[in-house]
Amino acid sequence: MKVGLIGKKIGMTRIFTESGSSTPVTVLDVSNNRIVQIKTKSTDGYSAIQVVQGNCGKNRISKSMSGHFSKAGVEAGKFIKEFKVHDEITNLLQLGGEINLEAFEVGAKVDISGTTIGKGYAGTIKKHNFSSNRASHGNSRSHNVPGSIGMAQDPGRVFPGKKMTGRLGGVRCTVQNLEIVRVDKDRGLIFIKGSIPGAKGNGIIIRPGVKQINQ
Predict the structure, then answer these.
(1) Over the range 110-134, which residues count as b (16 or more CB within 10 Å of their CB) and which as e?
(2) Which one of 73, 79, 87, 141 counts the least CB within 10 Å of its CB?
């Protein structure tokens, strides 16, 4: 059953293999993923399920969302997401039920989406990963600057889309083909090899990988 999950980023740690090598992993809490709404083609025109994760006080949500959760008979949550599924899957699910970790096994590839850490207003070198000039041998005050941006007399202007300074981070990002190293079903934890976008405590979307690379 290829259904996505909503998780909360706990942080990073390491796992030692049998050979003694260290593998950096990111820990995600995907426990208590409950179904809020089931959409079908007959009622909504497409098949999908709406999932919520985490806990949220009633004073933190609107009255419309409070009624939405009450209708499903589930506790209000912090992160909510809709996943499109096949018609056969909607018949197997129940409103208010929980989604377990059976679809995610060790060694499987997943795609993870999250909001990157905002870094504020950044310079050209940092934002676009440009190479800076050397900071020695007479180079004065221009070792970390973008350089000239103008054109010649024709056209005599800066073209739109020029890579310059600006806001860095705080955008939606998806990383594909990340490997699941360990699954703790008792505590609802998934250990992903490497880093994933987002700060600690942020909501993360986990989907089965669309590019199943056979190695």
Answers:
(1) bbbbbbbeeeeeebbbebeeeeeee
(2) 141
Identify the burial level of 194 via C-beta atoms within 10 angstroms of its C-beta, where 0-12 means exposed, 13-18 middle and 19 or more buried.
middle
Say which DSSP state 187 is in. Answer: T
CB 168 within 8 A of CB 127: yes
Q: How far apart are the first and last CA of the chain?
A: 23
Q: How far apart are CA 21 and CA 119, in angstroms?
A: 33
Sign for the CA dihedral angle at 138, 141, 142, 143 comes to positive
Q: By the 8 A CB rule, do 16 and 32 touch?
A: no
What tens digit of pLDDT does each residue of 138-182 get? Answer: 888 888 888 888 888 888 899 999 999 999 999 999 999 999 999
CA distances from 67 to 59, 64, 73 (A): 13, 5, 10
Tell me phi and psi for residue 113, to 5 degrees: -115, 140
Separation CA 209–CA 180 (nearest Å): 11
> Alpha-carbon distance 161 to 153, whole Å?
20
Residues 6+ apart with CB under 8 A from 94: 35
- pTM of structure: 0.83
Q: According to the model, what pLDDT value does residue 14 have?
A: 95
Handedness of CA 84, 89, 93, 99 (dihedral sign): negative
